Amino acid sequence: CRPGCSSKRWAGWTLTISRTILPVIDQRSLAQNGLADKSGAGDITQSLFFSPKAKTENGWIWGAGPVFLMPTGSDDLLTNDQWAAGPTAVALKQANGWTYGALANHLWPI
Q1: Alpha-carbon distance 62 to 17, whole Å?
Q2: Do the Cβ atoms of 92 and 99 come closer than 8 Å?
Q3: Which one of 29, 76, 91, 97 is least enclosed by Cβ atoms within 10 Å?
């Protein structure tokens, strides 16, 4: 199957929910004399969700998939310096201009 084509195995499912977190950090006053003062980028967390194309009967959107932590911090004090991966899940609802729900994940070092 080519990218973008449908398959009966994946009929009704989509992988269009992606969530990327790139923290921008400015930490001050963690140690005396500014020894831990740092600014820069932290580690990237990338979540990918397989989700049904249709909402539930009650209007909920849900999905589950993998989450990855990439050690991309711009300074030794802003990174865990370790790759990690694990499962993630999300459930959300949109109503009256609001989006609410829950997202959970767990990361294991690799």
Answers
A1: 10
A2: yes
A3: 97
Q: For residue 101, which of 109, 93, 5 has the smallest C-alpha distance?
A: 93
DSSP 4: T
Output the tens digit of pLDDT for each of the chain's 110 residues: 443 344 455 677 776 678 899 999 998 877 788 777 889 999 999 999 888 888 889 999 899 999 999 999 888 888 889 999 999 999 999 999 999 999 999 999 99
Sign of the alpha-carbon dihedral angle for 51, 55, 58, 59 = positive
What one-character DSSP code corresponds to residue 56? P
